Amino acid sequence: MPAEIIAVGTEIASGAKLDTNSQWLSLRLGEVGIPVRYHTTVADDFDANVEVFRTALQRAEIVLVTGGLGPTQDDLTRQALAQALGVDLVLDDPSLHAIEEMFASRGRPMSASNRLQAMFPRGSSPLPNPVGTAPGIWCSLLRAGEAPAHLAAMPGVPSEMHRMFREQVEPRLTGHSVIRRAVVNCFGFGEAQTEELLGDLTRRGADPEVGITAHEATISLRIIAQGIRQTDCDAKIEGVRRLLAERLGDTIFGVDDEEPEHVVVRELAQRGATVGVCESATRGNLSERLMRVEGGERVLRGGLVLPADAVFSALLDGVPSPPSALNAATGSALAVQLAQAARRRFHTAYGLGVTSLGEVALGGGRTVACAWVAVADGEHTHAAEARSTGNPAIFAPRTSKIALDLLRRRLLGLRPSLDS
Amino acid sequence: MPAEIIAVGTEIASGAKLDTNSQWLSLRLGEVGIPVRYHTTVADDFDANVEVFRTALQRAEIVLVTGGLGPTQDDLTRQALAQALGVDLVLDDPSLHAIEEMFASRGRPMSASNRLQAMFPRGSSPLPNPVGTAPGIWCSLLRAGEAPAHLAAMPGVPSEMHRMFREQVEPRLTGHSVIRRAVVNCFGFGEAQTEELLGDLTRRGADPEVGITAHEATISLRIIAQGIRQTDCDAKIEGVRRLLAERLGDTIFGVDDEEPEHVVVRELAQRGATVGVCESATRGNLSERLMRVEGGERVLRGGLVLPADAVFSALLDGVPSPPSALNAATGSALAVQLAQAARRRFHTAYGLGVTSLGEVALGGGRTVACAWVAVADGEHTHAAEARSTGNPAIFAPRTSKIALDLLRRRLLGLRPSLDS
Q1: Which chain A residues contact residue B302 at CB under 8 A?
Q2: Is the pLDDT of residue B310 over 70?
Q3: pTM above 0.90, yes or no
Q4: Where are the beta strands (DSSP E) in B55-202?
Q5: Would you say the ipTM is above 0.85?
Q6: CB contact under 8 A, B10 and A211
């Protein structure tokens, strides 16, 4: 039962406007167990519209269209749909009355072109629009030797489309299986390494299916289960969760949209504890990350962002300025001093430190750029290396997360790092 | 010369992730005069991928694909593309060496699956990826009786894709009439207000055409001129630049991708001057913004990021902690104190201060959330209000830029603000 979602409009094809309707509809179809295989965006071009509708009605059983139902010359959905179905357009009197009513109730004149909005491909059904002038269209196409295809054309205005989908389209699509999903997030392994650890769990077509995505070094595992009953789906998801926990252990830190800073802020808040930050190579990313989380301002008592060549002594209660070239030995030691200075300066229970960039030897005369991060509390300190992966856009968020993960592990009583 | 843009990935088809790559590519193609007729998103399904590539290579002359080039099992773009072209995959030794090098330089083990990333459809060309492991693919398909179709497959990671497109794909797409573009950036007016000031300059189909886009309160005016000779285009662009300068005056601060922080860092560096930051409502955004610009570490001597309820006195050499509710009078005064404290604490020529949130009365009993920003040097101080526009995602960057604009105006000897 694959579905296709079509967005009509030159403003989207040209990039002038971002299409968010297709994502919204995909999520809604997913919730009722209908997998979406294609999105298509097509410019306001009659032939291209006809071709896109024909293709969709061949390759998908459910086709949802948004846009192109307005009264202007470049709104071509109803004409193109009639052509794709090989039928003519006929006037629907109740729809015409509804449109006339809407204009009358708003005290606005109705233009002749609005009359076209009451025309429908022969054999289709109008989908009334209680909040706008453009009614939608529902039609079904019988296909030799295959299940029929169903198509709903809805307005492109999100508020009108959402209501029409919820009230009139979704009820026509139900009766299929239930789908449930869950997201588990981990930090520490790379994407390929995670896939190796998960093995057959990520096999395509598995039920539940597990997909891997990465965002700024956070790895998300998306579990999707289908079944007749919700409880069956939930049980399957629970089973996968247990397997993930076995294979990924304490690298798993959260669910849904959580990032390491959410966990750290929550765990600190629960203990009534606070943290201070002193950072260089992350350029403020670590402080900003903690400060913008809900509740972050209550636990992060201050962040000090320093350039690589800062003169530390006066700012940091006597921490000597770092040697000009940091290496594995001096880097870790400095990160610990910065974490301790952050604690002192902001009078907090925990301190996080991030040094400026240095480098470590890889053997064979090669080196890699590296910063060092550390966590300190009244009793312990732990430091870790954050090596450059070559992508500068990822370096700051990834290094910040390595520091946050040290603190998460300290708060939860886990081993300090993956390697220990 | 219609183009089609294809986004590959179940995470997009299912709605789990919003596709922004297709919009970005549409805008870039529009700038070089190539109209985009279709966007297609396809799930990670081999047969569906093959079909989508075949269809696109029939109906479009330029096909841009993002995603599906990674090393995991659900990355199918290279295999599906080979199938659609009717050829096999062959190993490209330089690409394999580049991938091996990248892993070696990061000191990380390379999985067997990464080797697949060095395989290419026979007859295609690799597009090297200087910032990630996945090289892209460029291929052309001869079509009987029609112009050949060209296809570029690029990584789905936006930063990698942007660079690959700019450096390797865009140059291959030119060869049409000469197109020259220029971007002029301004700060201070809203998007609608800018459009009013520009009047007929933004009319569609004008030559040169001027498009307005807004990104975190920076307004960019994109000038596109077409012509037979480059010198004609350049002359047209120069004419528009002069008109923009007349109508937008000193709100114009830069060109291309410049943001206010680029100008501030450059102007400070030219004077051998430095700046310190003390910020609250911007949550580290102001420090991060200055620190991550090329050369920023040499002029920003330190940033202090404080929560709304910080106890200022000890941290800021005696600045009293703010009253619990800031208003127009106390807000401006505090911003000035913070800017002065930043100067003292970091021993800099200039200081920037951003308060926590307060509110100002609008009349009729209504209020709006507001932060105050200020710049200080040894002689002068200037403060400004940064009102919430209702969009929390814009508040921190916009407020940071209001502060940076105060400093830019001070450095360049301009009036302190638009209103003065």
Answers
A1: 304-307, 310, 315
A2: yes
A3: no
A4: 62-66, 89-91, 119-121, 125-127, 136-143, 146-154, 178-186
A5: no
A6: yes
